[in-house]
Amino acid sequence: MVEDKFVGGASMYVARTGNGPGANGGRVQWRGIHWWPTPGMTAPNPDVPVSVAGEVAEGSRCLAVQAPRAAVVMFRGALAEIVHDRGSETAKGKNTLFAQLKQMTDDGDLVPALSDWASHIRVLGNAGAHPSTLAPVSMEEAEELLRLVNALLDYLYVMPAKVQRARTARP
Question: Which of 32, 47, 59, 135 has CB 3.0 to 4.6 Å from 71, enough for a Cys bridge?
Answer without folding.
Answer: 59
